[in-house]
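Box S2. Input/output pair 1.
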Amino acid sequence: MAIRDRIAALLGVSTFRQPTLESVVSPDDETVARIREQNGGQLVLTPRSQTRWYLRDLEAAEHAADTGDLSQAARLMRSARKDGVYAGVLSTRTGGLVRLPKRFRGEEEIVTPLKRGNDETRGIFDEMFPATELALLAADGVELGIGVGEMVPVVGREFPVFVRLDPEFLWYRWNENQWYYRSIAGMLPIIPGDGRWVLHMPGGRVAPWQHGLWRAIGKAYIRKEHAQHHSDNWQGKLANSARVAVSPQGASEEQKQSWFGQVMAWGVNTVFGMTPGYDVKLLESNGRGYESFKETILDQNNEFVIAVAGQTVTTDGGAGFQNSDIHKSIRADLIKETADGLAHTINTQGLPQWIIDRFGEGALSPGAIVEWDVTPPKDRTAEASALQGTAQAIRQLAESLSVHGLRLDAKQLSIDFGVPVIEDADDEQAPAMLFDTSLQQALELAGMHRLQPTEDTVRDMLSRGGIELEEAPSGDVAALSLDLAPTDVSAVVKVVEARSSQGLPPFGDERDQLTLTEYLSQVEESNRAQGEIAVAEAEAEAGADAEIEVNEAEPAESEVA
């Protein structure tokens, strides 16, 4: 299979093959290359500009386009771009589009140089497809429904440069289903996707010129041009007041001519000295025909805006510009239509040949594609908020279901919410994705019933989660953070540890190895024993004192007797 057939099969390029009819006379590649070199790399014919257009010219252009000749339609659109309103609105849709952020998808090895070049500044894509050339190609597609360009080799570079060609020289032959480009070398057949030609057809594969805006734009441009000319003519004739020289009835012919000559020579700061009977008057037009020209010009400006932008709010800033999403969505739809069409043309006719030349034919799949991000910033913020809400919902559902021994199908839920996901290459890692949540919930559920997992269960769960186990070195076991009551702490903390935490030296005896509970128990027991001894000693001392008092009292009694 030829390279071009391979590209067509992989990317769905519409096949326009060079005809084999003997009546078609086209120069060979060597002749074209020689003529191109002789003309400084240029093959395009000199464009012909038309400065005056009439509605009959638009009708003639329509009939010519239906035969495959787009020269008149292209010249009309080139003239229409002289209008400031139309040029501004068109540049918003095309020039502003190609300068929006680009997103590349595909093989990382291919995507990286497209985004960043060898000098780490501009990517190869920006060098290969200049923004100005792409904007002109997109404008041709909007206006005529078709545009054409050429990938021109550059000496010293490993990639060509895209050059937009004037669509005035496009020619389509119905009997051959073939597009040609008229050049100084002759009629060149256009073969899209062959590495040289790029044929941009957002207007459709069949008669794309019938779906362009050129007829609506052309009619508005011609009417506006005529209205402006008529307005200028009215201003030249009627905007300036006419001067009337009045002479008295009895004045001679010589006096009349003299007075008329003075009024006719009326200039800046002219002063007349008049005798009774002579007078100067200004005759002004009271007609309002100029208003019709003004209204016609405004109507045609609206035609430009509505045809290109789809509405007028985003250009004049009227009511609803900030608050009504429908106006913004219409504008965004048109920009996305242009962006998608341009990206499709580049992805199918521009990038494939570069991928083949640099990475080989096998790199076409998956290859790489480019697309423009046309999402308004306000919508991007809303999407981010929606994704955040989706993530929270998935997490909460996973936690709730895990309590009942169920697992959430996160992949299917992500697809339902439009969240792109990538599956792990190793399916065995899938259980690990829900491991943290499910284990935490399981431990909490077990703790509520005063249960704990066995060592075998923990090892089995960690093994299924893709975690290999080994014996931890002594002293390296990570401490678990447990919420303990003060009584529980005193039962596990030793006396030496408690004294050290308070900056006190150890006792230096067996008391240091006792827990606080044991030590306090011993202290309490010792205090109780000492208290009993003290009571006994006090009682013994009290008995001895009473005996002494009795012995001292007996002689006194005998003496009395």
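Box S3. Input/output pair 2.
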Amino acid sequence: MKQLKYFLWVAVVAISIVGCHKPVEVSFENATQEIEAQGGSIEIGLKSNGAWTIESTAEWLTVSPMSGSGDATLTLTAQANATGESRMANVRAFSKDNSSVLTVTQGFTEPEQYVNVTPKELLCDSEGDEFVVALSTNVDWFVSAPDWITCSPTEGSGDARITITVNPVESDVQESREAEVVIGNQSVFDKVHVVQTVEPVLDIELTPNSLQFVCTGETKTMNVSTEDSWSTSTESDWVTLSQTEGQGDAEISVTVGENPIYFNRVAIVIFTTAGNVQKVLTIHQEASPNPHFLEVSPREIAFGKEGGENEITIGCDTDWEFDLDCEWLTLSQLSGSGNATVVLTADPNMLTETRSVEFYAKSGSLSSRLTVTQAAGDIPIEASFEPDTLFVPYTGGLQHVQLTSNTSWTLQYDSWISIYAATSGEGDASFDIIIDSNSGSNSRTGYVNAIHNGEVISALVIVQEGKTNDLETDITELDVRPEGGEFEIQVTANQAWTVHTDVDWLHCNPSSGFGNGSFTITVDVLSSPRPREGHIKVVGDAGSEVVIIVNQH
């Protein structure tokens, strides 16, 4: 009987010992789970006969709770996916004896299409104008406008700068006009409202529009009737007006001196409004019974910028003189009697603008007006880039540059630089510069030169940094249990990279990438009792590499 009790006691102890060493297991109800693109929370079951912990490295996915014991319901919360591509994350559950992996996938939402133009309102007068609007969009687009508005470019894709040119109105157009410039496509678009104002044309009337004077000279009056401003012009120096310009109605005294010549003479006075309406006042004067003459030729003289000499011929029956008082003009003879030829000399024009002067030849009561003009001197060539220096990362990209110039130019630039605009022109211009990526490790310097007549008049300096050789992973050693599993590796890089293994029990997906990213290592089950070691090599296209040592035991 004692022996039976002893054997029963030993059996109970043995059963208790076996029961105390039952493995603690953990597993998800599902191996995969999909979450909608707009994000949200879902629940998933976890089965376990002991304590467990959760591990998840994806920033866009959270799990609650992160630890516990026994069966549980986990809440997975995902952010909305606006990256433009699907994504995946692994959630791992660990017990002291095993692990389980839940693969979570999430689709993506298509980005909302948009077109935005700035500014949306353009205003100009009848002379027209040129404007540049900024287009921000993520779609292909084209431009629609009426025939009195031209746009460049008229189609494209993505962001751009569009030049809108409003043409001057035709002379017969009397009313303001407006239109919409539509930019976009059939699905999404934006509008620029263009208004071109036209001022009404006001008429002018002259009463009378013709006057008759006796040979001895006299003063008469005439009236101007208009609501516009006006001015007068005439080539006859023997006519004097009491008012040569004004606003609205006016009474004007017209004075004519004695006619010294033996034939009738006629003068034309042109009245011109601000709206460019013209009316003519005609003045007639009878011939002198006792003529005296003064003839000067030519009466209009033009010099080039370098100066020089011109002859003036005088025809007169008595004494004559010139009243010239000008620093840059000289006459070989200022006075004389009878017919003569004098030389007018002009100094070189060192100014950058045209200059002119009027003076008279006189004889008794007669006078003849001479007008001298001289072309402008050379204008100093000016050109500058804004900015004049660009510092660009090795990845290259798009830069906007303004050129200010007072002359014509042609752009020359290095082969790794492209210009998104006309490469020649005149005056001010703006354009986009596209800079290629620098695959070398050394920085480089390039130039965009503005050329005029074979000479560089301004230079834009572009300094681009060399490509740094950055490549690393978040771990370089990995210890794996015999049952294997999946492990996500984070890659930080500024270059393209590929993944290689030296054993067939290690698998990597994806096997390549660019820049920052990740890949998953899948380790097969260890079927042998002996531990094993494998290597995963991440190789960058710039030559750097990282080795991850995987030990399974």
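Caption for Box S3: The chain has six domains: 24-106, 115-196, 204-285, 294-374, 383-464, 471-552. The first strand starts at residue 26 and ends at 28.
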